[in-house]
Design goal:
The chain is an alpha+beta fold. It has a single domain, classed as 3-Layer(aba) Sandwich (NADH Oxidase), CATH 3.40.109.40. Helix content is 36%, strand content 20%. It is globular and about 60 Å long. The relative contact order is 0.17.
Length: 229
């Protein structure tokens, strides 16, 4: 299926950001080693992303059709009630950085390389969103990803990847039997225009989550998504 491969992503890590993220003491003995590791990563990194335009078709109480593929989620179906086009995507730190991170080393190197890959993934994701805004003129948007809430479980990666096409050939991302992505620092989902703010976090009661973007709203599902009898 046609889409846009975003492979001109330049990865230049912000050392100060990494120092904060990885809790490295500024001016400490580890700074030089972190800088050396970042230089290695920048030399091999090729973060990429892929997105496409897909059109919303028929739906039922808890399913919605996108590009001829049926996705099962009451929340997604309601969120797309007045939407005719969406933007399925996948972004990754890249197979090159994944292979580099598997090089032998101690636990500290493993921890740092994990953080470096996360930053590379964030750069690819940001570049992809900039492309969406520039090319498609998107205003306010929301994002849903399989596995982010119980209503849209991780196994829904399979129909999403059916919409995306051969992602392994396009940018090296594949699903495992348990529907996790490889490289591990990869994300996928659907971006869609919306007039109401939506974050999956609003429907997630998990107390401790470093990635939380909005507080849990215990009544939101009943107010907005509960099906009428």
């Amino acid at each position: 299926m046609r889409g846009t491969l975003i492979d001109d992503v330049v990865f230049e890590a912000d050392i100060a950001q990494l120092v904060r993220k990885l809790h490295v003491r500024p001016g400490g003995a580890h700074i030089a080693e972190l800088e050396r590791l970042v230089a290695e990563a920048e030399g091999v990194a090729h973060p990429t992303a892929f997105c496409r335009v897909a059109f919303v078709g028929a739906g039922s109480v808890d399913t919605v059709e996108i590009a001829g593929v049926t996705l099962t989620s009451r929340v997604l179906r309601v969120n797309l009630d007045q939407v005719f086009r969406v933007f399925p995507y996948v972004a990754t730190c890249g197979t090159e950085l994944e292979d580099w991170s598997n090089s032998p080393g101690d636990l500290l190197r493993s921890y740092w390389s994990d953080g470096i890959r996360e930053v590379a993934l964030a750069v690819a994701t940001r570049k992809m969103r900039e492309h969406m805004v520039e090319v498609h003129g998107l205003g306010r948007t929301a994002t849903m990803a399989p596995g982010s809430i119980g209503d849209w479980p991780l196994r829904q990666q399979r129909p999403l990847f059916e919409i995306l096409g051969d992602t392994e050939a396009t940018l090296g991302v594949r699903l495992t039997d348990s529907c996790l992505m490889l490289p591990t620092k990869s994300v996928s989902g659907i971006v869609f225009p919306t007039e109401k703010r939506f974050e999956s976090c609003q429907l997630c009661p998990r107390d401790v989550c470093p990635g939380r973007r909005a507080p849990y709203d215990r009544d939101l599902y009943d107010r907005r998504y509960r099906a009428s009898d």
